[in-house]
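Sat 14:20. Reprocessing the chain from the morning session after the first attempt stalled halfway. Input below, unchanged.
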Amino acid sequence: QVQLVESGGGLVQAGGSLRLSCAASGRTFSRYGMGWFRQGPGKEREVVAAVSWNAGKTYYADSVKGRFTISIDNAKNTVYLQMNSLKPEDTAIYYCAFHSGYGSLQSQDNFGDWGQGTQVTVSS
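Finished this time. Tokens:
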């Protein structure tokens, strides 16, 4: 059974940093790309960042470029999202998911096996 578990969320002041982790089990991690997504209050879920299975390609939403970094540790079956210079508008539930292996990293439609999410709250 495939399972993704996110952690690392919390409350932080604007300008601060957090590192989210997503631990995977039940699947050969190194063969799949991964993505981070978020859903803010009253908003639709959006792609934040994604990485191909060999880390050769990455995608970042314009709103997080230069502030967030996605990385994979295949030995630990874990994908990370380092978030710096956080803003109140980054407040959301953050989810991770596996890329299907087909299609671009930019579309949520190409991801599945979602985790339960971790809450990130940025105070002004």
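The CA atoms of residues 9 and 47 lie 17 Å apart.
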